Amino acid sequence: MKLNLKMTIGDSVTKYPVLAGVYMTYGIDYCCGGDREIGVAIKDSAADENDIIQSLNEKLIALEKSGESTLQLSELSNHQLIDHIANQHHAFLRQALPELGSYLFKLIEVHGENHPELFEVHHLVGDLRTELEEHLVKEEKQLFPLIQEHKYDEAVRLIDTLEKEHDAAGDILKQLTVVTDHFSLPKDACNTYKVTYKLLQQLQVDMYQHVHKENSILFKRFV
After folding, report:
1. In the 3-class helix/strand/coil scheme, how is the chain assigned residue by residue?
2. What's the pLDDT score for residue 70?
3. If you average pLDDT over every residue of the chain, what do you get?
4. Tens digits of per-residue pLDDT, 106-118?
5. Angle between helix 191-212 and 91-111 (nearest 10)
6. Boundary-marking domain end, from 66, 88, 110
7. How far apart are CA 26 and CA 28, in angstroms?
8. pTM score, whole prediction
9. pLDDT score for 67
């Protein structure tokens, strides 16, 4: 088993979900940038091209040796995939975003004077929450019913808007990564600090998976 570098990043993660972790390690966007060929994305990365290819192929070799079967989301029906996205990713966002807002408010009170970047983190998380809460409603109240009712022409028109909103959310996540220096904890980090940054990392991972499943699997069926 060897990776085809002509395959798009999105298709590679759909076929081999274990590769997502490698892409994230090297800062390669596989959700909003999932339509790029693997070879092109690797060349655009700041990391060493050979190191990335080796890591990807090692993952595939380990997967083949383990004999493990992975969840093939592409094989799910539209209804099953929609339920999966709503139950796993939408539910996570509805819990995580308010928690992050509360944690960051506490951190600003205690650590804001010594760590002014927390104000920017709080602002970005607020923007992300506004963006995503409206986005979830559009998907659940408009797009998903259109797909389930087989009104695909109307769904396609809405998908273009939703993909642009994915790009906007992705830009905010990238800004959060920069502002927090890849979620690095300061030496004086308290327990709330640690919990907050861990949740921010979980949010980033979940959003990458979430957007990949929509852009590269669900939406791709209609566009």
Report:
1. CCCCCCCEHHHHHHHCCCHHHHHHHCCCCCCCCCCCEHHHHHHHCCCCHHHHHHHHHHHHHHHHHHCCCCCCHHHCCHHHHHHHHHHHHHHHHHHHHHHHHHHHHHHHHHHCCCCCHHHHHHHHHHHHHHHHHHHHHHHHHHHHHHHHCCCHHHHHHHHHHHHHHHHHHHHHHHHHHHHCCCCCCCCCCCHHHHHHHHHHHHHHHHHHHHHHHHHHHHHHHCC
2. 52
3. 91
4. 999 999 999 999 9
5. 150
6. 66
7. 6
8. 0.80
9. 63
Q: What tens digit of pLDDT does each residue of 150-199 get?
A: 999 999 999 999 999 999 999 999 999 999 999 999 999 999 999 999 99
Mean pLDDT of 58-85: 81
Task: Say whether both 81 and 16 belong to one domain.
Answer: no
Q: Which domain holds residue 32?
A: 9-66
If asked whether residues 41 and 108 sit together in one domain, one would say no
